[in-house]
């Protein structure tokens, strides 16, 4: 099993592909056992490290609380552990928040950055997912589905356009996330996420950055991506057809990301 000791954690990671190094940082509740990282289009162009963040998947689950700085330092330490001085970073949703904190705390480690469906925090946070813990499972799932794509229609043949059969898989995963072994780490992550705020520090990040948004994303709306581009020193925006899962919904997304990352 590919575990590596890093920053006091036993980190589960997978490394795929060849080329320049890319660190792929996943979103809330990310677990490589279901993410199928070996199928990532990024692997076709780069040497990519995918990993389970602290408290999630098969990585260590230390007692909390966790902070965004912890997640950023974990990412930097993992880069060191696999032998990378510097790498491009792709962060999706919560992973984008970690990437921003990484670029602030360890700017010399990040060569280029892609931020997918994420937010600066402060005046423009992503939806406070931690508040859904107060609801029963099915009510929370309904809210999450609507946040993922504003076009969600449970009575339609394709309830979230572009997802197809993955829609049913998505609901199964949401129900599995309430299992006790998955919930503790996820709750600690969501509490750290609630404190995410780089809104007043964006001007310190001069890493070339591609900010990607989904047109119908209500979890991290396009306005949040526009704020990132306005605040970062060197950033451009691409809006794709889809919602929070536009990487699945819009087949042009990964080619655009790969084109940006290629040296």
**Secondary structure tally: strands:** 8
Radius of gyration: 17 Å
Q: Report how far apart the termini are.
A: 31 Å
What is the helix/strand order? EEEHEHEHEHHHEHEHH
Any low-confidence stretches, pLDDT <50, length ≥5? none
Q: Estimate nothing, just give the exact number of structural domains.
A: 1
Beta-strand residue percentage: 15-25%
Quickly name the level 1 CATH class: Alpha Beta
Q: Per CATH, which architecture?
A: 3-Layer(aba) Sandwich
User: Biggest sheet: strands, sense, closure?
Assistant: 8 strands, mixed
3D shape: globular
CATH topology: Rossmann fold
Number of alpha- plus pi-helical segments: 9
For the biggest β-sheet, the strand order reads 1-2-4-3-5-6-7-8
User: Structural class per helix/strand content?
Assistant: alpha/beta
- The whole-number mean of residue pLDDT values reads 95
CATH superfamily: Alpha/Beta hydrolase fold, catalytic domain
What is the helix content? 25-40%
Describe the structure.
The chain has 263 residues and is α/β, with parallel strands linked by helices. It has a single domain, classed as Alpha/Beta hydrolase fold, catalytic domain (Rossmann fold). The protein is 35% helix and 18% strand. The protein is built from nine helices and eight strands. It has an eight-stranded mixed β-sheet, sandwiched between helices. Strand 7, helix 7 and strand 8 form a beta-alpha-beta unit. The protein is globular, with a radius of gyration of 17 Å. The two termini are 31 Å apart. The mean pLDDT is 95.
């Amino acid at each position: 099993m590919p575990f590596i000791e890093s920053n006091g954690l036993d980190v589960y990671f997978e490394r795929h592909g060849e080329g320049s190094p890319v660190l792929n940082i996943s979103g809330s509740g990310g677990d490589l056992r279901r993410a199928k990282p070996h199928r990532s289009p990024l692997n076709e162009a780069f040497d990519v490290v995918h990993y389970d963040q602290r408290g999630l998947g098969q990585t260590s689950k230390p007692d909390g609380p966790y902070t965004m700085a912890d997640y950023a330092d974990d990412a930097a330490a993992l880069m060191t552990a696999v032998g990378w001085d510097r790498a491009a970073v792709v962060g999706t949703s919560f992973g984008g928040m970690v990437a921003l904190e990484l670029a602030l705390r360890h700017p010399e480690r990040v060569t280029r950055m892609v931020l997918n469906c994420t937010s600066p925090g402060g005046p423009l946070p992503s939806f406070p997912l931690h508040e859904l813990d107060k609801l029963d499972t099915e009510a929370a799932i309904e809210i999450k589905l609507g946040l993922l794509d504003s076009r969600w229609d449970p009575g339609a043949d394709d309830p979230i356009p572009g997802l197809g059969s993955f829609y049913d898989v998505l609901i199964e995963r949401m129900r599995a996330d309430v299992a006790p072994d998955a919930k503790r780490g996820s709750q600690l992550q969501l509490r750290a996420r609630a404190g995410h705020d780089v809104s007043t520090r964006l001007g310190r990040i001069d890493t070339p950055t591609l900010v990607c948004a989904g047109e119908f994303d209500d979890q991290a709306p396009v306005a949040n991506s526009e704020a990132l581009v306005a605040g970062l020193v060197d950033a451009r925006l691409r809006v794709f057809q889809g919602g929070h899962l536009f990487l699945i919904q819009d087949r042009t997304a990964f080619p655009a990301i790969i084109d940006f990352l290629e040296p």
